[in-house]
Amino acid sequence: MYGFSVQGIWDNDSGGEQNILSVCRSGSGSGSEGEGQIVVTGDDNNMINLFRYPALKGAQFKSFGGHMSPVTGLAFSADNERLYSTGGTDCCVFQWCHH
Question: 14, 99, 8, 5: which is closest to 63 by C-alpha?
């Protein structure tokens, strides 16, 4: 996912080099377009990073760990209440609750 609305995922200060391997945006929230949406990235530091959408330059984020290898895949459930992440060599699928 590239574009103006996600430029902030690339310039975060994660304290070292980071390669984003996967990106996923939640579906539409109620209200105006984009309201309540989030963008999640998975990186080669084994972290999942949560941003508000749009994630503009300088966007703040929260990081979550758990995988023992790079996060290679991300997907939201149809109701946007769960995020699924897959690790590379750890062969794990995690389910995260999002309310």
Answer: 14
Q: Rounded to two decimals, what is the model's pTM?
A: 0.83
CB 41 within 8 A of CB 48: yes
What span, in angstroms and rounded, lies between the C-alpha atoms of 75 and 45?
19
Give the residues across from 84 on adjacent strands. 75, 95
Determine the pLDDT at residue 30.
Answer: 46
Tokens of residue 86, six digits = 């897959």
Q: What are phi and psi of 46, to 5 degrees?
A: 70, 25
User: What are the two backbone dihedrals, phi and then psi, of residue 4, each rounded to the nearest 5 degrees?
Assistant: -60, -40
Residues 6 or more apart whose CB falls under 8 angstroms from that of 82 comprise 76, 95, 96, 97, 98
